[in-house]
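Deliverable D4.2, example record:
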Amino acid sequence: MDNVHDILDRAWTAHSAGQFDAALQDYIWLFDATSERDSDVAPLRLSYVLNAWAKLAEEHLPARQALVALRDRDAAVLLAADGGNPSPDPDAGPGADIDANANLFNDVRAINDKLGDAQHTYQLFQRLPADLARECANSALPSMMACGDFTLAHTYLPHPDAHLGDYAAEVNAHVATLDLLGDAGMSELLATVYNYMTEVRLILELLEGYGDHAAAGRLRQQAAALITSAEARACIEAEFAHPGTTLDAMVELQNAALI
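Output generated by the structure prediction step:
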């Protein structure tokens, strides 16, 4: 789907030129065109396409209205699904419907994040069938906490120590495969640490909000200790000391690659 990149460039150009309606039509098309989860262009959907659409929505009311309409349409599909729509694929497994609806919920959550509407995500999550809610819980956790419902959030993450340990094991296994002497390996290390620290902060915020300050302090210490790579631990400790360090390093490395 090479034309996806061409149309994205065209949309950006139209947006910059003040041709807002033309840009909006392209963003709507792009959001749909990148909906196939296993396609090469799928990562563009909730990053470049949604970011650009949300930025247009700040300047162009119809763009915001279209984004809200998309969000409301997808939310209605979830509420009507009762856990899952019949799969069009006869070979799909029994969990395919829930997986598809969990992906749809993640779309709604991402749109709400751009709209600054955590309340909508939180209220939608509370209305989901139990099986689907379990699949969507990790995506919904920040919205639960933003709305002050740390008790509900803790219900879906009752064992934060084990959760952190599992995630750290995945980080260790992945970092062990990287060539940290090259720029590509270092870039991947920084991205891995960034994602890990995002999860660590989520857990710490949950524990602090729930009132378990002792556990929060313990897990803060474990966050670095569980990581076997000295380079990764150094990045984690730097991120704790100066939040934003990892992202700054990622940008610096990307900029250096362009020179």
